[in-house]
Amino acid sequence: MTRGDHGAVDHSEWDRIKTRLKKEFGDSAFKSWVKPITLDGMKNGEVELAVPTRFMRDWVVTHYADRIRALWASENPAVKRVSIKVATGAPAPQPQASPIQRASALSMPVPPTPQRAAVPFGSELSASLDPRYTFANFVVGKPNEFAYAAAKRVAEADEVSFNPLFLYGGVGLGKTHLMHAIAWEIRQRNPQRRVIYMSAEKFMYSFVRALRNQDTVSFKEQFRAVDVLMIDDVQFIAGKDATQEEFFHTFNALVDQGRQIVLSADKSPSNIEEIGDRLRSRLASGLVADLHPTTFELRLGILDAKADSLGTPVPPKVKEFLAHKITSNVRELEGALTRLCAHAQLVGGEVSLETAQDLLQDLLRAHDRKLTMEEIQRRVAEHFKIRLSDMSSARRARVVARPRQVAMYLAKQLTSRSLPEIGRAFGGRDHTTVMHAVRKVEELCRDDTAFAEDVELLTRMLEN
Ligand code: ADP
Ligand code: MG
């Protein structure tokens, strides 16, 4: 067989090279990047390879071209060059379509291809998005208006605005919902922007797998090629040193290139333990926006919206009842309403206060049981670094009296105990003492933001 002077192609050489590449780069990289490459021809010592999209072309050129060239040279000394072009579908006679250049020349002019838009970027990496989690379906109230506005801004901005946007808040307060909403909005506004949304666990898992396959280079590059990287629940990365380090580098590379990053966590950067100070300060270097625990009004608003979408009439009394009773988390609140409506539809009854109380017994009881006064006292004592026994002691010094009042206040807010019951749990105090404590804490929360933050943090910790 003659080689070199005309288009004769020896597929067995290419097959052997592919086998080598598979061994060297691992199965998943092979599948994503090598397998789609086709051997088009060979002319004058130049092997011509083709890939379906321009993005792939750039990728293969940067990551695999040198290796392919070297392997080919060892297979067949007549091969001097390897070029990688974008398959045009139809035979394209323009000179640009058959670039006779060194494969590593990234600047080679290639006509724009529509294929790239057809294959959503990172579709195999990015988690799928819940169609219900849009901005339109997000009910805005005092506790989340700031996070909502920040998310909206990032989604609508054509230029990187806050980087990173760090959303944090307790379980079920809408972090994932807002992140999906950002991703939807960006994809809709500009389908060309490459958005990856994934959980921190998935990020960790992919990284570990890449390590195992000795494929960390393409792992890194996948992330470094995105326009918007969104990672949910980054607290999972805490304590996992290697992943954390990798995340940090990816993060820096993207920020330096002016790409948008959006993160969520259940705590603020300063409260995530076991992350390095460098990462911590980087996380906090953009805009940190928190989702506060819901208020009664917001819960009611969410129930209104949800009831509308379920199409079963729900009396206002029932909504109020639920909004009062299920305070910790929107997911449970929605779950309760769905249950009531489903029941009404299935057995053909109406949603009423009685059926609510009846059907949700377990849920309501679980809520009451979940938090004991002892637990509240313990957490508050820890937080203010006083002894647990001081919760019931007679000491009146402010260092212990104030935390004790906070604990009483929280017992009132977070449990269904009566004032006398609470008083008894705090060393047999009178119910008027408890009442005074509640008022005092409310007053301090209004006047002293640092104090209000302490109380809010405790509330959130205890509710989760
Ligand atoms: P997180 O990620 O903070 O734990 P999610 O975003 O998963 O919470 O929210 C839990 C559920 O509550 C989701 O079904 C979400 O749609 C809903 N939800 C939370 N906040 C709101 C809100 N403000 N408006 C409408 N739905 C909400
Ligand atoms: Mg979430």
Derived from helix and strand composition plus strand pairing, the structural class reads alpha/beta
Bound molecules: adenosine-5'-diphosphate, magnesium ion
**Strand percentage:** 5-15%
Second CATH tier, the architecture of the largest domain: 3-Layer(aba) Sandwich
Quaternary status: single chain
The overall pLDDT average reads 83
Read across the widest sheet, the strand sequence of neighbours is: 5-6-7-4-8
| Named CATH topology of the largest domain | Rossmann fold
Return the CATH class of the largest domain: Alpha Beta
Give the % helix.
40-55%
CATH superfamily of the largest domain: P-loop containing nucleotide triphosphate hydrolases
| Unreliable stretches covering 5 or more consecutive residues | 1-6, 90-123
Instruction: Please report the total strand number as a whole number.
Output: 8
C-alpha Rg, in Å?
A: 30 Å
Could you give a short account of the major beta sheet?
5 strands, parallel
Termini separation? 73 Å
Query: Secondary-structure element order, as H and E?
Result: HHEEHHEHHEHEHHEHEHEHHHHHHHHHH
Number of domains: 4
- Helices, by number, come to 21
**Tertiary shape:** elongated
